[in-house]
């Protein structure tokens, strides 16, 4: 293909087979202050504005990313709590946030009835849980708002939320192959990704099968993200293995997991090194692919919770290089118990160079300069972060 042509000759075909965006069956997070809670909070007032769930990771516990702001006000002074996330665990539940320059546990959450967690559907429901400021949040608010006394840590009211991804039509997270030339015969032996976006207890840290056919197996309307061929030293493969490897439980005894959801799926059910994403849209000039799906890396034993979602591939004008953008959650430091992850939206996370062979495009992705989102910010710019492959025709 000449670089002067649109990068994707199949833009129209991709759009024809891509399913409509998955929506979420959810009840927006709702905080209700009781009369007693309002009295306990004085001289502060709390307003929530509109809160929405942006994504959720559900295993034995749930982590729910929330878009919106909690505003605390005292007189003319105010303090905003942003980057909100709700954790519902076996031993503790809480709302984490960024308050000023601090990341902290903002609200202690005490369920009044058992929360409903469904890992198979990626669903979570919490109704009428009691909430209260944590001591750390109360102290931070006193400083930020120059209060004469530390706010109360008594029960303020209740928190309710429900979230469940809507199944894509037909029950499969993958679009069907477009009519026309078929995938090369050698690719037919590649296992089809599971339609269930859940972790399996026997997830392997061993290298999965990685023959050449795996790099020419993505059907039209999808993109595969593979790390199986990487050396496993300071790259996406080693990060994946690190998340899944057992460690002394410093922060929690909950098991590690890597979960594909929101349309993304593993290529092999027992390995979390390679994934497939549906193509949601292609720009008119064929240079930008918007993918759909979420990968959540959770290592509770060391306090790690990292999410990457809504990948966007953008080619440069020459069609030989480009950038990859994403949204999600990240933690700037590893091995830090109780530090909530930061939410980010549409940030550049990788660079890539492109090669073309046998009717497939392969993007060789690396960690972008200045990036602090991938692998807890512990991987230098230029480190390999896998290959993205998709059919050119």
Automatic annotation (TrEMBL):
Could you tell me the keywords of this UniProt record? Signal
Q: Which domain of life is it from?
A: Bacteria
Pro residues bias locations = 174-184
Stretch list, region Disordered: 170-209, 374-393
Tell me the leader sequence span. Answer: 1-24
Compositional bias segments (type: Low complexity)? 185-203
What name goes with this protein?
A: Htaa domain-containing protein
């Amino acid at each position: 293909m000449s670089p002067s042509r649109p990068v994707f000759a199949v833009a129209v075909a991709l759009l024809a087979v891509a399913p409509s965006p998955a929506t979420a069956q959810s009840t927006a997070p709702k905080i209700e202050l009781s009369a007693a809670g309002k009295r306990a909070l004085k001289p502060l007032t709390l307003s929530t504005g509109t809160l929405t769930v942006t994504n959720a990771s559900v295993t034995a516990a749930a982590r729910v990313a929330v878009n919106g702001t909690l505003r605390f006000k005292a007189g003319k002074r105010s303090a905003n709590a942003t980057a909100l996330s709700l954790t519902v665990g076996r031993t503790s539940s809480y709302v984490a946030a960024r308050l000023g320059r601090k990341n902290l546990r903002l609200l202690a959450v005490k369920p009044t009835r058992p929360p409903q967690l469904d890992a198979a559907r990626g669903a979570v429901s919490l109704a009428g849980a009691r909430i209260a400021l944590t001591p750390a949040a109360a102290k931070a608010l006193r400083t930020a708002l120059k209060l004469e006394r530390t706010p109360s840590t008594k029960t303020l009211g209740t928190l309710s939320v429900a979230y469940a991804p809507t199944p894509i039509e037909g029950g499969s997270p993958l679009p069907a192959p477009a009519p026309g030339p078929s995938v090369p015969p050698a690719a037919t032996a590649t296992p089809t990704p599971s339609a269930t976006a859940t972790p399996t207890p026997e997830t392997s840290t061993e290298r999965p099968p990685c023959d050449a056919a795996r790099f020419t197996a993505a059907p039209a309307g999808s993109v595969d993200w593979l790390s199986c061929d990487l050396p496993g030293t300071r790259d996406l493969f080693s990060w994946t293995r690190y998340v899944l490897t057992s460690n002394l439980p410093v922060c929690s005894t909950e098991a590690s997991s890597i979960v594909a959801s929101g349309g993304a799926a593993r290529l092999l059910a027992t390995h979390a090194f390679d994934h497939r994403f549906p193509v949601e849209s292609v720009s008119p000039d064929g240079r930008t692919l918007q993918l759909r799906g979420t990968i959540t890396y959770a290592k509770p034993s060391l306090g790690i919770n990292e999410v990457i979602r809504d990948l966007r591939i953008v080619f440069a004008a020459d069609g030989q290089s480009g950038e990859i953008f994403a949204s999600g959650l990240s933690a700037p430091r590893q091995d830090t118990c109780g530090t909530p992850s930061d939410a980010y939206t549409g940030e550049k996370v990788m660079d890539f160079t492109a090669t073309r062979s046998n009717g497939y495009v392969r993007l060789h992705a690396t960690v972008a300069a200045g990036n602090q989102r991938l692998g807890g910010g512990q991987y230098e710019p230029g480190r390999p972060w896998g290959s993205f492959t998709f059919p050119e025709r």
